[in-house]
Amino acid sequence: MRIVAVANASLKRQFIDRSLPVVLSVIVFFHTHPTYAQDLGAGATVFKQCTSCHAIGPNAKNQFGPHLNGVMQRAAGSAENYAYSEAFENSIDTESVWDTAKLDAFLQAPMSYMPGTKMAYQGLSNADDRASVIAYLASIDSSGQLPEPAATKPEKTSQTSDGQQRSLARDIPIPEHGLLHLGRPALDAEVIAWDIDIRPDGVGLPSGSGDVITGGELYDEQCASCHGVFGEGEGRWPILAGGQDSLVDDRPEKTIGSYWPYLSTVYDYIRRAMPFGNARSLSDDDVYALTAYLLYLNDLVDEEFELSDQNFTDIRLPNENNFMSDTRDEEPTHQIVGEPCMQNCLPGIVKVINRAQILNVTPDAEEASDAPTVD
Amino acid sequence: MRAKNKASGSTAGAEFLDKNAGQRRQLLKSSVALGGLATGLGAATSSLAASTAPEKLITEVQDWNRYLGPGVDAKPYGQPSVHEADAVRRDVAWLTADAKSSVNFTPLHKLDGIITPNGLCFERHHGGVADISPADHRLMINGLVKTPLIFTMEDISRFPRENHVYFLECAANTGMEWRGAQLNGCQFTHGMVHNVMYTGVRLRDVLAEAGVSPKGKWILPEGGDAAHMTRSIPMEKAMDDCLIAFKMNGEALRPEQGYPLRLVVPGWEGNMWVKWLRRIEVGDQPWHQREETSKYTDLLADGQARRFTWTMDVKSVITNPSPQAPITHGQGQTVLSGLAWSGHGRIKRVDVSIDGGRHWHTARLDGESLNKSVHRFYYEFNWQGQELFLQSRAIDESRNLQPTKDALRAARGENSIYHNNGIQTWHVRADGSAENVEVS
Fold first, then answer.
1. Where are the beta strands (DSSP E) in chain A?
2. Is B435's CB within 8 Å of A269's CB?
3. Helices (H), B212-336
4. Number of domains chain B is built from
5. Contact between B120 and B87 (Cβ < 8 Å)
6. Which of A97, A290, B6, B177 is most buried, most CB within 10 Å of its CB?
7. Domains of chain A, with CATH numbers?
8. Contact criterion met (CB below 8 Å) for A317 and A260
9. φ, ψ (nearest 5 deg) of residue B167
10. DSSP string spanning A45-61?
């Protein structure tokens, strides 16, 4: 009885600390299977680098890469209806299951381990990352059951349980800034870490440089699998090059060379969002090199070109002057004068002049040859 | 007294039965004509149509009248009835290369009133749905401010709060229809819009804490997802009605709607309502980010393009009947319903035509008429079984008029993708089925 009471009292204190539910679940968790939890949590995080190409889970399908449900229990290269590359079929024993050592070597540097593989991914250089992602894959059976979510976050939650008693409200100092004195001043290092935007006038550009040749190598390794070797776009992945003078055509191709007004957007966007599924992994020089290479793919610079913070704003994209502000309200039918017509507004009987092109829009519908795209 | 009551009661009953029998006969006829269509209504339709035999549903005790259902807490978080399994968001898989940079659509034809349930609000992501614990979330204000600041979620909750119902429409809603009728159903043609009540704090209050420099003319909100979504927004709008929201329809934002924080930019295109909001920079010029150059610019026929086309123009659509919601009840009393909205303010009026724009009838707006919220309209009429060409046109309080699709094409060409607010036509055939068409 006494013990319960004591436990309760300390629990209450923790409750005031607002972290009780978290604390409890972590404690319970570590008592059952601590190491298991640690690995899977880290593995799930590492696996986020793989989800742009691989699916796992109850509804997982093959994407750019095969689905990985039960991959450690099935024969290598055996995902149903998936077309593996020739390189893969030739270099892997597709009769037996993946062994951990081989998979470890594959994941470290897929493209050098297996030249010609479709897995255009630079690899995991950190051995712990490889171990944890392999443990994570091994925990997923062929039905795609994912490990319990509680297991995936032990590190973060334990951090929030400091076990400290909270100070009295009146002892917490009120900051000076602002009107309501909310928030805290940001540190320079924090602003530098997040403020990565770049403007057309070059404000925000980091110092550095990169050339077309280096950019080409990076591009082939990390971008071509989706955007195509010449920036032409594989399947429905975005097109990055070409389309010059196509803007007045029936089917304009809007690319960096044909449409984008400013080069700063190319640098900014690659740095913040690409490669898809592994954002913020490129160095500033890598991004200069890739930007230079995309200029080259768009016939805007030659092979010797090097881009840097020094010459960046000298480069103008050809379509810069074809943008104007919003003039929709100048269109003749935008506003109505007087009352709208209510009776006999159109002559003759109604004629259908065109009907829905795509009747079956369920997910399995066949791809229409000139299907529209959504941006 | 008693006897009289009983007698008059049964007379009324007989009359009622007679009338019903007549209706049933009619229904029987029309449901034969409907053929396969009636299956959607299943047992209800067939038993109604089954002549004058008493319905077993009424004369026999049903399972659900006899046995107990589940108790409280069977579902700690409640879900829709199992009979509403088709009221779900849907995507069009071939539109995009990858589900993590894709879109799905709100089933407008399944909804009524003006509020969109949280689980049915359409999704558009550029790097999948970020999973962020509120304890790990930070909002930074930096740039041309006196004191760059960091806020936790708790800090944000200490600002004065406001509640507003606003529509959010993707600028590409109806974007597939520029070249003519394409997708068959209002879910797919118009389902990139939703309307919920946000709880949040005023953006201007949060900016004031940092102290905006007089040189600050623009803000750049940024998301904390893998796309790091960014858009330039003029300071005037930021100081006017923008909110930093943490609740939708009373509960925490859904992960796919930006949990734990999203920017609310009333009346403006959905892409600007940055989800997983983690940073707002103040600057003196726009940044010309990818989503306001490569995307969300409107290419005109002459090769020029409009940029910064932020406001969502006045628009409406008939949600019922529509291709996914055919008329299954035969001729007679028919309820037509739809939605109208405008980024310029309230909807003043909606007119409906059932004959492809020859004649118009002013529809009845019902429910709340709120600023920059969708409005619900109804038009009840006696359908005589003829072919219908249903259209709706909305006018907002600033007298902006919803244009025809042809007027839009004449002004812009067919390659704009965005901001297609043209009048939609549904062709309802004599069997009640409906199709997306364009008419002369």
1. 184-185, 209-211, 306-308, 323-324, 352-355
2. no
3. 235-240
4. 3
5. yes
6. A290
7. 2-149 (1.10.760.10), 209-322 (1.10.760.10)
8. yes
9. -85, 150
10. HHHTTTTTT---STT--
Distance CA B195, CA A297 (A): 43
State pLDDT tens for residues B93-121. Answer: 777 777 888 899 999 999 999 999 999 99
Report whether pLDDT(B38) > 90: no
Residue whose pair of structure tokens reads 């795209």 in the numeric block: A373
Tokens 């969300």 locate to B296
Q: What residue numbers bound the domain in which B69 lies? A: 12-79
Q: Give the burial class of A269: count Cβ atoms within 10 A of its Cβ; 0-12 exposed, 13-18 middle, 19 or more buried.
A: buried
Between the CA of residue A151 and those of A39, A47, A109, A126, what are the distances in Å? Answer: 9, 14, 28, 22
Distance from CA of A338 to the nearest CA of B (A): 9
- At A41-63, the pLDDT tens digits run 888 888 888 887 888 988 888 88
The residue count of chain A comes to 375
Give CA–CA dist A25/A13, Å, rounded.
17
B86 vs A contacts (CB less than 8 Å): none
B403 and B429, same domain (yes or no)? yes
| Tokens linked to B41 | 């209504």
Whether residue B40 is found in the same domain as residue B141: no
Mean pLDDT of A200-225: 97
ipTM attached to this prediction: 0.86
Chain A residue nearest residue B125, CA to CA: A375
Report pLDDT for B102.
Answer: 87
Nearest to A185 among B93, B149, B299 (CB): B149
pLDDT of residue A142: 86
From A182, A265, A272, residue closest to B228, measured CB to CB? A272
% of chain B surpassing 90 pLDDT: 84
Higher per-residue pLDDT: A154 or B138:
B138
| From A200, A336, A368, residue closest to B399, measured CB to CB | A336
| Kind plus residue range of the DSSP H or E element containing A16 | helix A2-16
Position A148 confidence tier, pLDDT thresholds 50, 70, 90: low
Q: Structure pTM?
A: 0.76
Q: Quote the CA–CA distance of B341 and B174 in Å, as a whole number.
A: 14
Residues of A in contact with B135 (CB under 8 A): 160
pLDDT at position A64 over 90: no
DSSP string, B252-288: EPPGGGTTT-EEE-TTB-GGGS-BSEEEEEEESS---
B252-262: pLDDT as tens digits? 999 999 999 99
Q: Which residues of A touch B357 (CB under 8 A)?
A: 345-346, 350
Element (H, E) at A128: helix A127-138
Query: Mapping DSSP to helix (H, G, I), strand (E, B) and coil, where does residue A36 land?
Result: helix
Same domain, yes or no, for B198 and B265? yes
Asked if residue B85 is part of any domain, the answer here is: no
Q: Is A364–B93 a contact, with Cβ atoms under 8 angstroms apart?
A: yes
- What residue in B sits closest to A201 (Cα-Cα)? B287
What is the DSSP code string of A242-300? --TT-TTSSS----TTTT-S-HHHHHHHHHHH-STTSTT-S-HHHHHHHHHHHHHHTTS
Does B150 share its domain with B220?
A: yes
d(CA A285, CA A297): 18
Say how far apart CA B182 and CA B184 lie, in whole Å.
7
